[in-house]
C-alpha cells in the first residue's frame, strides 16, 4: 500500500486543498484541517470550552450542496481565504481580521440563501487542540481507493473520490480491506496511525465536487450493495512525523 493523495479542508464544508506532504503532530489533528466552520445561526459553540457540535449546526454539503460549486484556498501564513466560482474570484477576506471574516460571511450567506441559511452565518475558528470534524474520532481520515472503485461499479457511474472528503487516500489495498483495520496500526515511515473506527456516510457523498449538483445516492448504493453505509476509517496520530504522496504504508 502507499499514499496516493493528501488533502486538507481548512474550512468545514468548503473545497479540499491538495498537498504533496504533511507534518502530522503526535496526538493532534491533520494539519490545517477543519480549522474553521461556518455557523448557520447560533450553535452554542463556546471557544473557551469547545465541545463537538453536530454538523447540522454549520453550513455543510449534506444540506447545502451548492457549496461544492465553489473553489476555496486558504493561505495559513497570511490568513487570507479566497473563494472562486467558475474560475473567477468572488470573495476574499483575511480571517485574522473582523472585516475579512465579515466579507466571507456576507458572501456565503447570500450565496446559500434562504431557507437554507437559518440565521446569521458566522465564521468560527477552532481554538488550540480542537477541530470542527464530523466525528470526535476525526483526527485523520483515510479512504481506500479500491473501495471507491467498488462503489463506482455498483453505482454504474463515475465517482470522484473527493466525495468522501478524506485526508489520506490509500492505493494498493484490496477493496474493503479497511474494515479489518480498526484496532490495528498503519505505519508510514516513522509515523504510526492507530485506526479507531469505520466512517459512516451521509447525503454529502451524493453531491458532485466542483458543480454542487446532487446527482446520486451513494448512501443507498452502499446499503443495497454492501450491507453498510461505511467508506474509509478514522485514525489517531500515535506517533507523528512527515508523510508524503508515494510513501509506503504497512499494517501492524
Properties at a glance:
eight-stranded mixed sheet, 32% strand, single chain, 3 helices, three-stranded antiparallel sheet, globular, alpha+beta, 252 residues, M1 Pyruvate Kinase, Domain 3
Explain what you see.
The protein has 3 helices and 15 strands. The mean pLDDT is 96. 14% of the residues lie in helices and 32% in strands. It has 2 domains: 2-28 and 135-251, PK beta-barrel domain-like (M1 Pyruvate Kinase, Domain 3, Beta Barrel), CATH 2.40.33.20; 36-125, no CATH class. Strand 9 (140-144), helix 2 and strand 10 (168-171) form a beta-alpha-beta unit. Strands 2-1-10-9-13-12-11-15 form an 8-stranded mixed beta sheet. The longest helix is centred in the middle third of the chain and has 15 residues, at 98-112. The chain has 252 residues and is an alpha+beta fold.
Low-confidence stretches: none
What is the C-alpha radius of gyration, as a whole number of Å?
18 Å
CATH topology of the largest domain: M1 Pyruvate Kinase, Domain 3
The percentage helix is: 10-25%
Task: Tell me the series of helices and strands, N- to C-terminal.
Answer: EEEEEEEHEEHEEEHEEE
Structural class: alpha+beta
Gross morphology is globular
Percent of residues in beta strands: 25-35%
CATH class (first level) name of the largest domain: Mainly Beta
**How many helix segments?**
3
Report the biggest beta sheet as strand number plus sense, adding barrel if it closes. Answer: 8 strands, mixed
Strand line-up of the largest beta sheet: 2-1-10-9-13-12-11-15
The count of DSSP E runs of length 2 or more, i.e. the number of strands, is: 15
Name given to the CATH architecture of the largest domain: Beta Barrel
The CATH superfamily of the largest domain appears as PK beta-barrel domain-like
